[in-house]
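Forum > Structural Biology > Help requests

Title: Can anyone predict the 3D structure of Nitrile hydratase beta subunit-like N-terminal domain-containing protein?

Hi all, first post here. I have the sequence for Nitrile hydratase beta subunit-like N-terminal domain-containing protein but no way to get a structure on my laptop. I'd be grateful if someone could post the structure tokens.
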Amino acid sequence: MKPEDVLVCKSLVEFRDLEALSFPTPWSARAFGLVLAAAERKVFSLTDFQQKLIEEIAAFERQVGPIDSDEVYYSRWVAALSGLLELKGVFGDHSLMAAEEAVRAALAANAHDHDHEHGIDHADMKLSPSPINRECGQ
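Reply #1:
Sure, ran it for you. Structure tokens for Nitrile hydratase beta subunit-like N-terminal domain-containing protein below:
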């Protein structure tokens, strides 16, 4: 089962098998979860999101070419979600960028060399997360 199968439902009540969904990356699952949470709270409908996603994919394909990876596909989910949230007045692009900068600052403030153990493998951590509001490939 694919996440886009959920978008054909009129409401989340119709779709009960969320555990059967699989995602290529943790961030794509989170993007999907944000869409469902916003729809569940009536910020927008799944139909609204589906339409915005179609528009985002079409615009990307006109400008860049066919979507050829899961990363590119889910970047369109994030773009559609951001666009709908801005359209609905939940927040603007400047708010998203400010939140992203706050996360970067918090990560930088927590960076440290140390000889103690606290359950975090710093070798696997990236100090600077990938921007969440960007075109794929930038």
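Residues 3-91 form a domain with the Cyclin A; domain 1 fold (CATH 1.10.472). Helices lie at 26-40, 46-63, 70-87, 93-110.
Shout if anything looks off.
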